[in-house]
Specification:
There is one protein chain. The chain is of the alpha/beta class. It contains nine helices and six strands. Helix 9 links the parallel strand 5 and strand 6. Helix 5 crosses helix 7.
């Protein structure tokens, strides 16, 4: 027993030494501010982490401001976002890295972070599958990945819910960034279809995306699903929620 404990201690010390040497020669940097991360910290430094404005929706027992976005538009059961999007703050840098700078591991990590918070909310326990918002084939080829799929994979790691890619984006559209709510809707109206028809689609699905702004993209995706599966219950999960 003593010999085994000694071997375990030596193994643990050796691993820590190797980790320390690796960190010294190849330090990881913060995904937001690009400063060196303390040893043992992943992706986001403590300063940038403290700047994240968490919604705490997992503790809400009444409707959230995210759910109210869809009122009078389409029947969405529940909406969950963990961080308020704020321009000039660390969340903007994080989402930019995920969307445009090939930060695939960061996307999965943020999905896992969402999944951990969802574990505290009973409204999402009945979800049967995760549906990522797809990119157009051309855009995904150029970018090399779909950030929503990576986020969904992170959620899957925490929730064990399957990821199902049933949506297809029929056409490439212009950026939504500087458009009004009406312009956003016209820009994404009817851009989604069902990629493959499946008679066994789960009863309760969650559409997954990076940020929820006006809800136009998610509304269009939900309409495509409900057109083919009118009995399906739809919820929404995103990393961030733009403040109105």
């Amino acid at each position: 027993m003593f010999l085994f404990a000694a071997q375990l201690t030596i193994h643990r010390m050796s691993r820590e030494i190797v980790s320390g040497i690796r960190h010294f020669f190849f330090p990881e940097t913060c995904s937001s501010c690009d400063k060196e991360l303390p040893q043992g910290v992943s992706f986001i430094c403590p300063i940038c982490w403290d700047e994240l404005n968490f919604t705490h929706f997992e503790k809400f027992e009444t409707s959230t401001s995210a759910e109210q976005i869809f009122w009078g538009r389409i029947g969405i059961s529940h909406v969950f976002s963990i961080i308020y999007y704020e321009s000039g703050k660390s969340i903007q840098n994080i989402l930019h890295q995920i969307k445009y700078q090939n930060a695939k591991e960061l996307a999965v990590y943020m999905g896992e972070l969402v999944g951990k918070r969802l574990a505290e909310n009973n409204d999402f326990q009945s979800i049967d599958a995760l549906i990522p918002i797809p990119l157009h084939d051309k855009k995904e080829f150029i970018r090399g990945y779909n950030q929503s799929l990576l986020i969904a994979n992170g959620l899957k790691n925490q929730t064990n819910k399957p990821v199902i890619e049933i949506l297809r984006r029929k056409k490439h559209h212009e950026s939504q960034t500087k458009k009004s709510r009406e312009e956003r809707w016209q820009n994404v109206k009817d851009i989604f279809s069902i990629a493959r028809k499946d008679d066994k689609i789960p009863k309760h699905i969650a559409i997954v995306d990076d940020v929820l702004t006006t809800g136009s993209t998610i509304e269009s995706a939900a309409m495509a699903i409900l057109k083919n599966y009118p009995e399906t219950k739809i919820s929404v999960i995103t990393i961030a929620l733009a403040k109105s």
